[in-house]
Design a protein that fits this description.
Largest sheet of chain B: 6 strands, mixed
Number of domains of chain B: 1
CATH architecture of chain A: Sandwich
Number of domains of chain A: 1
CATH class of chain B: Mainly Beta
Number of strands of chain B: 12
Strand content of chain A: over 45%
Structural class of chain B: mainly beta
Distance between the termini of chain B: 41 Å
Radius of gyration of chain B: 14 Å
Helix content of chain A: under 10%
Strand content of chain B: over 45%
Largest sheet of chain A: 7 strands, mixed
Structural class of chain A: mainly beta
Shape of chain A: globular
Order of helices and strands of chain B: EEEEEEEEEEEE
Largest interface: A-B, 27 and 28 residues
CATH superfamily of chain A: Immunoglobulins
CATH topology of chain A: Immunoglobulin-like
Oligomer: heterodimer
CATH topology of chain B: Immunoglobulin-like
CATH superfamily of chain B: Immunoglobulins
Number of helices of chain B: 0
Number of strands of chain A: 11
Radius of gyration of chain A: 14 Å
């Protein structure tokens, strides 16, 4: 009954490859996010989607492309992986227009290692 | 734009003791919330406590409480009777809204807390 689930949990790949991380939420939320947590544990938002529409794009390289087939899914596709892409990627979801004290729910993270 | 600063990268506390994690923020907004999230080694982000900016009363959740000083833009987390399971990264988060009603979350840089037996 995981609210926000990401697959895979761990991903090791070579430079130059293309990879995807999947995210699904069963909370009925209409807004989903991708965050990147770097080696220093700093968490920064990358993208936000609402009902399959891109809302936020925080100056992320265009090698990163979010795909939202429906409002319960937001996948992250990364082309031409670089060493600097190694990080933990978190998916999250929330509901637009809920009271602001409603927290976003996070997935368990995907640790991406580029070698 | 808002910024959130956690000036203590690492802290340690003896089991059963009390520890305070600091957080300061900078914003020009009036309507916002502040959260503390906990990230244990499992990586799961867990909400610990939340504070409404318009409330002067400090939030409390069992052993966790905050000291919210709005004028000083300070939002510290106090953990009483520390337990081994409190060992984790703690993130202060500032919650506001983009135009259109979308939630915007700005995280601090985190404080790594180690509870020592």
């Amino acid at each position: 009954d995981t609210a926000v689930s990401q697959t895979p949990k761990y991903l090791v790949t070579q430079m130059g490859n293309d990879k995807s991380i999947k995210c699904e939420q069963n909370l009925g939320h209409d807004t989903m996010y991708w965050y990147k947590q770097d080696s220093k544990k700093f968490l920064k938002i990358m993208f936000s989607y609402n009902n399959k529409e891109l809302i936020i794009n925080e100056t992320v390289p265009n090698r990163f492309s979010p795909k939202s087939p429906d409002k319960a899914h937001l996948n992250l596709h990364i082309n031409s992986l670089e060493l600097g892409d190694s990080a933990v990627y978190f998916c999250a979801s929330s509901q637009k227009d809920r009271p602001m004290n409603t927290e976003a729910f996070f997935g368990q993270g995907t640790r991406l290692t580029v070698v | 734009a808002q910024t959130v600063t956690q000036s203590q990268p690492e802290m340690s506390v003896q089991e059963a003791e009390t520890v305070t994690l600091s957080c300061t923020y900078d914003t020009s907004e009036n309507n916002y919330y502040l959260f503390w999230y906990k990230q244990p080694p499992s990586r799961q982000m867990i909400l610990v406590i939340r504070q409404e900016a318009y409330k002067q009363q400090n939030a409390t959740e069992n052993r966790f409480s905050v000291n919210f000083q709005k004028a000083a833009k300070s939002f510290s987390l106090k953990i009483s009777d520390s337990q081994l399971g409190d060992t984790a990264m703690y993130f202060c988060a500032f919650i506001s809204r983009y135009s259109g009603g979308y939630q915007k979350v700005t995280f601090g840089t985190g404080t790594k807390l180690q509870v020592i037996p």
